[in-house]
Amino acid sequence: MNSDNPIVFVVDDDYRVREALSSLIASVGLRVLAFGSAAEFLESEKPDAPACLVLDLELPGTSGLELQRELAAGDGPPIVFITGHGDIPSSVRAMKAGAIEFLPKPFSEQELLGAIDAAIVLDREARRKRSELAELQKRYSLLTPREREVLPFVAAGFANKQTAADLGTSEITIGVHRGQVMHKMGAGSLAELVRMSDKLGIARTPGRSK
Amino acid sequence: MQRHTATEFGRLVKRVEEKTLHPARLNIGSRLILCFVFIILVMLGADAIVLWQFQVVHAQAERLNGIDQKLVTLLRVHASLLEFYAGLEAIAQTEDAGLLVKEAGDLRAVVLNDIQHAVSSFSLLPSDLQRDPNFLPTIHVIQSSLTSQLETIIKLATTGDWRAVQLRLSNQVRPLESMTSALVEKVDHDAAEQRAETVLNTGRVQRLVFVIVPTTAVFALLIAATLGLAITRSITQPLARLVEGSKALARGEFQHQVTIQGEDELAHLGQVFNDTARRLRDLYAVLQSSEDRLRLVIDTIPAYVWSTAPDGSVDFINRRWLESTGLSEENAWNWRSAVHPDDLPRYVDELQRALAAGEPMESEARLRQADGEYHWFLIRNVPLRDESGKIVKWYGTSIDIEDRKQAEDALRQSQAYLSEAQRLSHTGSFSWTVPSGEIFWSAEMYRIFQCERTTKPSVDLAFRLTHPEDALDLKHVVARASQDGEDFDFEHRLLMPDGSVKYVHVVAHGVRGESGELEFVGALMDITAVKEAEGKIRLAEEALRQAQADLAHVNRVNTMGELTASLAHEVNQPLSAIAANGHACLRWLSANPPNLAKAREAAERIIRDGQDAGEIVRRVRALFRRAPGEKDVLDLNEVIGEVLRLLRGDAGKRGIAVETELDKKLPSVVADRVQLQQVVLNLVLNGIEALDQVAHHPKTIFIRSAWDGPNAAVVEVRDNGAGFENPEKAFEAFFTTKQNGMGMGLAICRSIIERHHGRLWVAPGVGPGATVCFTIPLKSSEMQ
Fold it and tell me: Under a CB-based contact definition with an 8 Å cutoff, are residues A124 and A6 in contact?
């Protein structure tokens, strides 16, 4: 199965709801994994794919909101809350903590499926950014310490001559480092390198101190 | 030889010094005098030796002089003799007898004179020079023969025999001449010998002088120096010991004693010194013990004690200070760190002003204790002045007044509370001394009477503000009380200047003071609000009766509402599932190609969940049917379990632990499931609500099922809430202790259980909280 094939996790302690939701979600061609409790979900192995979590608010043991808090620490999937008798404070808390949607039972299929779709789109984007950043970090890790010193100067648009003066070396050496940085970071152009260093959160060397 | 003598002498002096004449035996004065006398004697001796040596040299010179004189005398005799003979011969030549006679006498006189002179000078010579035995006899021979010969010659001349004269002269006189010249030669020889000897002697003596004089001088100097040294040492050594002793004394080593030798002034001084040191030591010990005592007192008294220099720098702090504040001795000077930061600037300011003005100060400040807490202290500081009035020291004490402060605070607070309480309860207090008519009012009294605080309270003032309709009665009561001193309790009205009316209630208690004067102490309560409320309550009571009439209906609706809410979730679940399944089913069917198997599964689930929902609805309906429901064979524990599943979440949210002790071996009962559930639900809900009031201990609901004899089961529901005040009343309709309840629960429960041939009752209290039990017959007995 394609690893990009999205997956929906359903966590609800009521087997009837669990089965019904699994069937409904599967009917639109999404993969489904259902769990009876937060603990089961946390222990399970999750495939590496864009995902969405349909989470019941009232769960035995760890409650839905508690699970949301736990997941917020890592790179958990976006959450769609469902609840039997949702009250306003819980819904506000859930939404504030970043839930995609908060659906009181019974809910319409469009509401649920729409929320799931939105969540998956969001997660796919987030995952793409994460992997991109990971790739950039991997490339950045290949740089030598000196090249890492040179990178902020290049990103800030300094000429080799200025950089060489600031780092106390020759212009030619900086030229070589610059070539290496471009090559190792896989940057086709200076603009691309600047974008990369922004994504990596590398501060550009500020204006000359003169 | 002399050096040897000197060392010998030195040794002697030393021995004498050490043994017989130890210098310290004598006083320093006599010792010095003796020393000087001895030195003078030694110098005199040395001078005598020098003089003696000079004498020796002088004697040798005299001797040389004598020898020369002797020779000169002899030569003169010889010369005059020669002259005599020459004169005689010359006269003899002339042959003039007259002349001879005339001249001979003169010549003889000259010669004899010379001889006489020589003899006399010879006799004057030192005896050792007169040793020539021939000299005087020769002179005498010459003397005698000369006279006789001259007479002979004169006779001859007178006779005219000049020839004979001449002969005689040449024969007789010549030998004399040779005799003297031999003598001269001999004497000359002797003189030369003696001169040589004398010169030798003189040289020796001079050499001796050169040795003796310096030796004597050196010797005398040595003795003088040795003596001086010995005497000086005999003085400086004890002096040094004394100096050392003094230094030790200055260092405070009072046990130091000076070694004493001899009995001179320094020895006396040493003894005096030792005595002084001993006394100082004793004195010091006394002082030390008295200081220890004082120190003990200072360290023990329940106060901080310190002293400071005139500039305020601390130079003494007692132990209690250190112990209480927990500051180490090195840090004690930094007393500021112990003062509460809020008090420090003020205290330092006061202290500086007191220091500058030189006047005693008294202040209060909080000081940190070793446990970190601050205590209030009363701090006093007084200056000590010298005769000229200059401040030499400041002495201070700090006394812990925390308790007093707290008491003051408590008093202030209690006064504040009292005042507040009076204000809140609209109760003023007063005292009234009857004979003097003096009255005291608390602040609230002024407020009630709407008077300025400056107003002087009086009985007349009170009368003036009293409602005219009540004034007479009040006057009567007051007059009687002031007569017999009895307590009084009176309610009346006040008419305020603004026209408003106040109801007040006065209670007063009469007491006799020490001097027997009557005094009333009392309280006056503004009961206007109470009076107004009483009126309102009358109205409210009527409204209540009306409300109670409406209540029965409302209650039924309300109970249903509560149950519906509890069951809504239960119904909602299958409904949600049904809806989701329905959508899924449609989707499976509309898929291309349609997934019929999945669609069927979904449809089956719809049917199942629909039946679930139907069952719930059926049960709810049964619950509200008045008629006994359908009776099934039920597991009592299962019924309890179902109820608890419904409520556990709710209980958990409220922090209530639900514990069960269910007898698993209990046989089935025959009962209406929903009604039985309702009873259990009701009892547990009651418990949960009772526990809402609990705040101080863990909240628990305990449910137990067990045998009740062979034919029945008993279920006990216990909570640790407030419990029932009146258990039997609990079953009356409308009786409730719950703010939100309607009081129908237990009544309904009892009627349900009774319809099932069981009993329901409130068990007598076992510990805190309420225990409600019910029994229900077991299936076997039902069958019978």
Answer: yes
Residue B542's pLDDT band (cuts 50, 70, 90)? low
What pLDDT score does A9 carry? 93
State the smallest CA–CA distance between residue B764 and chain A in angstroms. 36
Domain with CATH 3.30.565.10 in chain B: 629-783
Separation of alpha carbons B327 and B338, rounded Å: 8
CB count in 10 Å sphere of residue B139 = 22
What are the chain A neighbours of B577 within 8 Å (beta carbons)?
14, 16-17, 19-20
ipTM: 0.75
What whole-number distance in Å separates Cα of residue B784 and Cα of residue B646?
A: 34
pLDDT band at B23 (very low <50, low <70, confident <90, very high): low
> The domain B68-204: what is its CATH number?
1.20.120
B588 Cα to chain A: minimum distance (Å): 6
Q: In the prediction, which pLDDT does B110 show? A: 77
pLDDT at residue B556 is higher than 50: no
The CATH code of the domain at A7-128 is 3.40.50.2300
For B142-155, what is the mean pLDDT? 76
Q: Tokens for B699?
A: 């909240």
Most trustworthy range by pLDDT among B215-224, B343-352, B626-635: B343-352
Task: Give all strands (DSSP E) within B565-698, no chain letters.
Answer: 632-634, 656-662, 669-671
Q: How far apart are CA B259 and CA B392, in angstroms?
A: 41
Closest CA in chain B for residue A17: B577
Tell me how many helices (H) and strands (E) chain B has. 19, 17
Alpha-carbon distance of B630 to B260, in angstroms, equals 131
H or E element, residue B602: helix B596-624
Mind listing the pLDDT tens digit for each residue in B668-691?
888 887 778 878 888 888 888 788
Indicate the fold that domain A143-199 takes in CATH: Arc Repressor Mutant, subunit A (1.10.10)
Name B57's Cβ contacts closer than 8 Å, sequence gap at least 6: B202, B205, B206, B209
Which chain B residues have a beta carbon less than 8 Å from that of A19?
Answer: 577, 581, 605
Tokens representing B74 are 């002899």
CATH number of B301-400: 3.30.450.20
Q: Which of A128-132, B52-56, B590-594 bottoms out in mean pLDDT, i.e. has the lowest?
A: B52-56
CA–CA distance from B235 to each of A18, B28, B377 (Å)? Answer: 122, 8, 63
Is there a contact between B745 and B685 (Cβ–Cβ < 8 Å)? Answer: yes
Say if B568 is an interface residue toward chain A (CB within 8 Å): yes
Polymer length of chain B: 784
What 8-state DSSP symbol labels residue B517?
-
Q: Which tokens in the block code for residue B650?
A: 């709710």
* Contact assignment for A20 to B649 by CB distance below 8 Å: no
Contacts of A112 in chain B (CB under 8 A): 580
**B629-783 maps to which CATH number?**
3.30.565.10
Q: Where are the domains of chain A?
A: 7-128, 143-199
Contact call for residues B758 and B774 (beta carbons, < 8 A) = yes
End-to-end CA distance of chain B: 164
> Among partner residues A26, A85, A106, which is closest to B579 by beta-carbon distance?
A106
What is the per-residue pLDDT across B302-326, written as a single tens digit (0 to 9) for each? 888 888 888 878 888 888 888 887 7
Contacts 24+ apart (CB under 8 A), B728-733: B728/B762, B730/B762, B733/B552
Average pLDDT, chain B: 79
What are the pLDDT digits (tens) for A152-177?
Answer: 888 888 888 888 888 888 888 888 88
Helix (H, G, I), strand (E, B) or coil at A51: strand
Six-digit token string for A88: 């306003």
CATH of domain B545-624: 1.10.287
Superfamily of domain B409-526, CATH level 4: PAS domain (3.30.450.20)
Which pLDDT band holds residue B704 (cuts at 50, 70, 90)?
very high
B644 touches chain A (CB under 8 A): no
